[in-house]
Design brief:
heterodimer, A: 263 residues, TIM Barrel, 46% helix, B: 321 residues, alpha/beta, eight-stranded parallel sheet, two-stranded antiparallel sheet, 11 helices, 40% helix
């Protein structure tokens, strides 16, 4: 599974502070720690409060790439900021994200195609988030079609069926699992699936337990990627164990260590 | 309508291991061998590359063994009791790309040779040959740990391949390889989970993937080769899928297994329908080697020159040369 490290996000206090003070070391540390813990990609989000989001995005991308050789997921709803980030990526980037909203969808896909980026597509549109799995996958299909129209292969589209906090809408967890499973039949090769995992536990008690339990459940449905905290060892261990039980890795007694050594 | 052939593209590659060191590299060899580097299943050359063709090493033994099959005795005669002369013949007459010296004489049941005895054999074989050397202990834990560090030191700088580390006994050999610049063979008993575990244990000692070769343990044709094949295939598929702890080149002790088979050595007088033992043994070894090549062997350790010759031809054909 692709682990997309979530910790470089201007919504977090420490990152906001680092951005404000242009504290490159703090950002580098977060990048290195996530890479070392097993992230395969790093999410980069300037946060809502930045006065110069384009400049901040460029600075973050450059700072991260000066210490780690990982692909980046440029995380912003603003396409100008998006392009500023994509332009500077040394490795194949990810556009995070677009929705199914028709007018914006086309522009986002054009941008992704221009920078050969993979794309996260959120299953929501002008009308909001559908209540069930079918509705989510109708939007997913539109997103995949829009990508293919611009020459982006269907398996470079990561559908995010939008998990919501379980203390707000408890039935969503099951609906999203169903959507992950159904999503695989939308195209050939099938689109990938991704979750913003921490959302499931937003505002709850026992957040780490809920996060890792839900990740394991989603993996069993075929989840391909998650935006998550790679520094949560118990979460990473649960993910590795789940993949082992799904026969994605060859068992050996030191399977946790083996995974972390690239096995 | 043209048929589109679907091809697989590997996410990972097999590590590359070089055995032997020339004078310029601090050893005394005139040639070295490099194995590994594959980005496709064996000989699936439309899907990736096999930058280093599989290598045939010929196996010799330090022990005055008396029960060699008649066909091996016929070829090597008195040299079976003279390791340097045996090694020299393998290299100069039969074109071995490497020599594998099995120190069976150190086994407590077969001579119990001392570390000093083993060291002199290693030195003699090194000076009688110019190709890289693979040294394998008797496979007895205490005896291996007694003789292999001494042999390792005696061959320091030659970048040999030393065996074998097992799940229960890897520290001494790994430490010697690290200290003396050799590569290591990690052995597992036809068990993919243990194969991976041994690789991790050796890696934790500080040896990089470029200095580890896997011995998955094999069987001969008719003696469990299907099982060995399936284990090797699964390991290679995992490696090409990106599993770095399975992505080491593979060594197969073909001769040891093939010449143990009844079919390889029983005389025609006992089994008239089977034809001459002479041809049978050679074919048994060559067929076993061929199957293992296709399963992903990088180094074949063989005994009979005619079998070696046949398999060399097979490798050439499969590589389109």
């Amino acid at each position: 599974m692709l682990v997309i490290g979530e910790l470089i996000n201007g919504m977090y206090k420490n990152v906001r502070k680092a951005i404000k003070a242009k504290d490159a070391d703090a950002i580098k540390q977060l990048a290195e720690a996530q890479a070392k813990a097993g992230a395969g990609m790093l999410d980069v989000n300037v946060g809502p409060a930045s006065a110069d989001p384009k400049g901040t995005m460029e600075w973050l991308v450059d700072t991260i790439q000066s210490v780690v050789d990982l692909p980046l997921a440029i995380d912003t709803p603003n396409l100008d900021v998006m392009e500023a980030g994509l332009k500077r990526c040394k490795r194949k980037p990810m556009l995070n994200s677009t929705t199914g909203q028709q007018d914006k969808l086309e522009a986002a896909m054009a941008l992704a195609a221009k920078y050969k980026a993979s794309v996260i597509g959120l299953t929501m549109d002008e009308k909001g988030i559908p209540r069930d799995a079918d509705g989510r996958n109708e939007i997913a299909l539109r997103i995949v079609a829009a990508a293919m129209e611009k020459g982006i292969p269907s398996d470079e589209v990561y559908i995010d069926p939008l998990i919501l906090p379980c203390n707000v809408t408890q039935q969503t967890a099951g609906i999203v699992l169903e959507a992950i499973r159904q999503c695989k039949v939308l195209a050939d090769p099938p689109p990938k699936t991704v979750l913003g995992l921490s959302n499931v536990s937003q505002g709850t008690q026992e957040r780490p337990l809920l996060n890792r339990t839900y990740l394991v459940m989603a993996l069993a449905q075929g989840l391909d990627a998650a935006i998550m905290d790679p520094l949560d060892d118990a979460l990473m261990d649960a993910m590795i164990a789940a993949e082992l039980l799904l026969n994605k890795h060859i068992y050996c007694d030191s399977f946790l260590k083996a995974y972390r050594k690239g096995g | 309508m043209a048929i589109e052939v679907l091809t697989d593209k590997a996410a990972g590659a097999i590590a590359t291991v070089t055995i032997g060191a020339t004078k310029a590299e601090g050893g005394t060899r005139e040639s070295v061998v490099t194995v590994g580097g594959e980005t496709c299943l064996p000989f699936h050359l439309k899907e990736g590359v096999m930058p280093h063709p599989p290598v045939i090493a010929m196996e010799i033994c330090d022990r005055a063994k008396t029960d060699w099959p008649p066909e091996i005795e016929r070829v090597f005669g008195a040299r079976l009791k003279d390791p340097p002369a045996w090694a020299e013949a393998c290299e100069k007459q039969y074109g071995a790309q490497a020599i594998c010296l099995r120190l069976l004489g150190a086994h407590s049941d077969y001579g119990n040779n001392s570390a000093d005895d083993c060291v002199s054999t290693v030195r003699e074989v090194l000076s009688a040959t110019t190709v890289p050397l693979i040294i394998v202990g008797p496979g007895q834990k205490d005896k291996d740990n007694e003789i292999m560090p001494a042999c390792s030191q005696a061959a320091k700088g030659e970048k040999c391949l030393l065996g074998s580390a097992t799940q229960d006994n890897y520290k001494t050999l790994a430490a010697s390889c690290l200290a003396d610049g050799h590569s290591i063979i990690g052995e597992s008993p036809i068990d993919i989970n243990i194969a991976k575990q041994v690789n991790i244990l050796i890696s934790e000692m500080g040896l990089p993937p470029g200095r580890i070769v896997m011995d998955p343990t094999v069987g001969a044709v008719g003696y469990g080769i299907e099982y060995a094949y399936s284990i090797m295939e699964r390991g290679r598929l995992a490696a090409l899928g990106g599993d770095k702890m399975m992505a080491m080149p593979v060594i197969c002790f073909v001769g040891k297994e093939a010449w143990r088979a009844k079919e390889a050595k029983v005389d025609q007088s006992e089994a008239p329908a089977w034809g001459p033992a002479m041809e049978r043994g050679i074919l048994w070894e060559a067929m076993t080697a061929t199957v293992l090549l296709i399963a992903g062997a990088d180094i074949l350790v063989m005994r009979h020159p005619d079998a070696v010759e046949k398999v060399r031809g097979v490798i050439g054909e499969l590589l389109g040369k």
